Request: fold
Amino acid sequence: MRSCALNVEFEAVIGIETHVQLATASKAFCSCPSLYGAEPNLHVCPVCMGHPGTLPNMNAQAVLLGVRAGIALHSQIARRSKFDRKQYFYADLPKGYQISQYDEPLCTGGYVEVENAEGVKTRIRLQRAHLEEDAGKIVYAGAGQISGSDYSLVDYNRAGVPLLEVVTEPDMRSGKEAYAYGDELRRILRFAGISDGNMSEGSLRCDVNISVRPKGSETYGTRVEVKNMNSFANMQKAIDFEFERQVALNRSGKVEEIVCETRLWDEVKLVTYAMRRKEGLADYRYFPEPDLPPLVISEEMIDGVKASMPELPSAKRARYQALGLSRADVVVLADEQDTAQLFDSLLLTGVTVKTAANWIQGDITAYCKESKLSMAQLKVTPAALAEMIYLIEDNTISGKIAKDLLPELLQGKGNAGVKALCTSKGLLQISDEASIMAMIDVVLAANPKQLAEFKGGKVNLKSFFEGQVMKQSKGRVNPGKMQQLIAQRLAAL
Reply:
């Protein structure tokens, strides 16, 4: 048996459960604020703390965002769904149960389409997406995780925050494919205004289910869950490690050591480790939530959500490609909503497609990375950026001046008028022939040795003289006119 396993090629079978915090102002069933970063246990009340006699009241905005997610993910929206109590007893669950949806979820089916580096598209099927409430957050003192911590504290600010749990079919076969799925799902949720998807703040968390089987087999192996991945990079590493671990156990004849359990990812040791045996559905003792009526979605609501749906990433990428941009440009410009919005705003001012793409992907992105800012935090207006670009094109300022000036523009200092700002700083380009010729004569007189070598046949020194004139003008001279006049002046020697 073991010798057979040594010759077998295995494949991973991967499904992902993604817990998405919905972008609502308040919690799912009470009026407590849904905010990240507040003082621990500040945003709590008798309802979200599960005090006896309190009743939940469904957040209508959470329902609307759930419907919007279903439409964005090509799911079927249930006109009638219901809530259930999911029983489990953890310190971060004050009620002793979670209000969730079991057998009648809000959304069923759907898919997320991912594209690899070669442009090949694959659809990852979705099983369901349902509404539920979040648990509190356990804070481990002395370490960032259970391993190595001294004691635990519980912050209940997150308890009751509305979640949408998106569950895939077991369609993925590698950590890389799982990364692509998670990345595109988050992109869709962000573009649709459903969630900020900030994994470092816990707004989006992934639980990975992985098993292995011989390639070509239709039989699933024993499934292991790896919980609470806080980045797609860690999720990919955890999947790759777990695949190798399970394959090694198969090859060594220890397949019985692969058990249905929950494991955690150790970011330091780069390994998964057992947390607990996995509960079965019977352990959760689901039953219908007695304090909430069935959730009924009207056709008018669905039509309204469809009508207000913003342009989603796949449609935006298709539109950008139709503008003639390369796939590489499209991937960058449609990656973040803020980037796409700035690009679209520049196009509306009349800036050409490629010029807008180059400025955003080049100097503007570099400034954002260096300043640790998102493009949404930039104070520049699209009109000011467009004016800067037009000033370059009509030779009012040089490209070098524009690049030097850009940080100030991105801070909003040119919103009242870029040309006026350039004038006040003495940055307007010098295009007057007499002024340029005077600078050329000064440079030639100051560099007699190089001038003699040029006359002796070292014609490549023309570039040296051009650089010196540019330096003397502090980057303000019109480069095209300057090169033309230098050529004329040197030819006349």
